[in-house]
## 1
Amino acid sequence: MRPFLLGAPSVKSPTRRDRHNPVLHRDSWKCQSCGKRSNLEVHHKEFRSRSGRDSEGNLITLCTACHAGSPFTEIFCAAITYLHGKL
């Protein structure tokens, strides 16, 4: 799966864009880990391979570095969900 990069021309599916834009807007167009506002991706908190859905509550905005660099992404997302009052 290709990441959803802010302004990336490779994103063609309107349904994907429709699904990700509300998440980016909700998260103020910034990485929920480091606060960076560029190279953003929308990440599944509960992985699709583990029956995670594409619902807004299961998606979070991360920059490419935080998305790729954290071996504890699932734990991080659980903590963010808790701190944000269970999005």
## 2
Amino acid sequence: MAISLFGLHSGAALATVVGVLMEVPVMLSLVWWLNRQVK
């Protein structure tokens, strides 16, 4: 969606795509780590 709005070479589109790709594994790792700490 961001690439279609801003174009392939736009910094905003790049930041959106890279941000989502980085955020998901980081959040999953954080949840996994917190679950291990609680037990």
